[in-house]
UniProtKB/TrEMBL annotation:
GO terms for molecular function: metallocarboxypeptidase activity; zinc ion binding. The lineage of its organism: Bacteria, Bacillati, Actinomycetota, Actinomycetes, Kitasatosporales. PROSITE patterns: PEPTIDASE_M14. It holds the Pfam family Peptidase_M14. This is Carboxypeptidase.
Length: 426
């Protein structure tokens, strides 16, 4: 299936797996590089050396692209961040590709999109990139990708480490979010279908965590329902809400199997950190008899569906940049007002129990020297403001990361890192 990607010509107008028809800029090499996946027509996934060669080529080809090393895995593989943009822009979008190493289609979509944007010369793309900076972590789990495993080289699921930040991979991503403050964070994954009840081409889901600002939550839902899903639908792909089984006749939800509001997941941490987050999941399983007989055909469908959804993200970014910037900017400022409850449980489709609501949060939390020593690096990576004291440290709630602080330090929070002493003398 060849997607009709309509995103301002921001990605290749032909199928993701065909040679790009975009004319390279004057300083570019005559022929844009192709991924290993494209070279083999989907018979295998792009290798790490092939990824490195492609990124080096696009970095050399144009000043609109830069590639930086943001970390190193336990197996000494580089974690890279690609920046695409004509100049520094206020609006920033971050793509996190293949946190789970055995879910490669998002990575392939990210690599080919990087290439297409790097070589595009049309006016609409140039205008878009003059107003938006696109950041891409093309392989968020290089060790897992090399081993074809969900977890990293220690077997840790990186997408359950965005609170504690124990892995090099999650730490690198946290630093990018802290320093670049993206307005949208788009997290690319894959899933295994359940016949009848859970078998769309693509599922997506916004932050369900109740600490997500209302306006940011609304923008994330708009991204999903008004842009990503329609873009995929125009290309013939079916879509739905991740983690919800539906009745095949009525379409009514019958069971929730995933997609809660726990703060360890990037989708939810995105909302807590004031970005419109969206998880996207393409279907791994073959859809047709032809795909069952031809693995490459199935692989191509997995990647082109991701490309279609990415087109919706780019359309959204261009159309709603003002609304998105207003929502994220206001959300970042609200923490300084130090008002309202903090939620340690529940979700947008699962109201919090009274025990899951800190109705009157403390002014801050006191840490002794040992506690602070244990988590000072993680607090810094999260961008949490800390005041050093003679006996340790004081972490005030009056800051942009207000809702995050109790999730890290309050003994009632299910995944807290240390138990801080609440300061109620407000």
């Amino acid at each position: 299936m060849t997607p009709r990607i309509r995103s301002l010509a921001l990605v290749c107008a032909t199928a993701a797996l065909a040679a790009p028809l975009l004319t390279a800029p004057a300083q570019a090499t005559p022929t844009p590089p192709r991924t290993g996946f494209e070279e083999t027509n989907g018979a295998r996934w792009t290798t790490q050396p092939e990824e490195q060669d492609l990124l080096a080529a696009v970095d050399r080809a144009t000043g609109r692209v830069s590639v930086d090393r943001i970390g190193t895995t336990k197996k000494d593989r580089p974690l890279r961040l690609v920046r695409i943009g004509e100049r520094p822009a206020k609006n920033t979008v971050l793509l996190i590709c293949s946190q789970h190493g055995d879910e490669p289609s998002g990575r392939e979509a990210c690599l080919s999109t990087i290439r297409d944007l790097a070589y595009a010369r049309d006016k609409k793309t140039k205008r878009f990139l003059s107003r938006t900076t696109l950041l891409v972590v093309p392989t968020a789990n290089p060790d897992g990708r090399a081993a074809d495993t969900r977890g990293n080289s220690d077997g840790v699921d990186i997408n359950r480490d965005h609170l504690s930040l124990r892995t090099a991979e999650a730490r690198a991503m946290a630093a990018v979010i802290r320093d670049r403050k993206p307005d949208a964070i788009y997290d690319l994954h894959e899933y295994g279908a359940t016949p009848k009840y859970y078998d769309k081409d693509l599922f997506d889901l916004w932050p369900r965590n109740l600490n997500t600002d209302d306006a940011v939550h609304a923008e994330a839902q708009t991204l999903s329902k008004a842009y990503v899903r329609p873009a995929a639908g125009r290309d013939g792909y079916t879509t739905g809400t991740y983690g919800i089984w539906t009745d095949p006749v009525t379409g009514d939800p019958i069971k929730q199997t995933a997609g809660d509001g726990q703060e360890r997941i990037l989708r939810n941490m995105s909302g807590i950190k004031h970005a419109a987050g969206l998880l996207i999941e393409s279907r791994v399983d073959p859809l047709t008899e032809a795909e069952k007989k031809d693995e490459a055909l199935n692989n191509r469908r997995r990647v082109t569906s991701q490309r279609s959804a990415l087109g919706g993200l780019l359309d959204y970014t261009d159309a709603r940049r003002g609304e998105l910037e207003a929502a994220t900017g206001a959300a970042r400022a609200k923490g300084f007002l130090d008002r309202g409850p903090v939620y340690i449980g529940g979700a947008d489709n699962d109201p919090a129990e009274p025990s899951e609501i800190i109705q009157d949060p403390p002014c801050g939390y006191r840490l002794d020297a040992a506690q602070y020593g244990d988590i000072k690096d993680e607090l810094a990576l999260h961008g949490v403001t800390v005041k050093r004291t003679k006996t340790g440290a004081y972490v005030p709630l009056r800051q942009s990361a207000r809702a995050l602080v109790p999730l890290l330090l309050d003994e009632r929070a299910p995944y807290h890192m240390v138990t801080g002493r609440p300061d109620m003398a407000c």
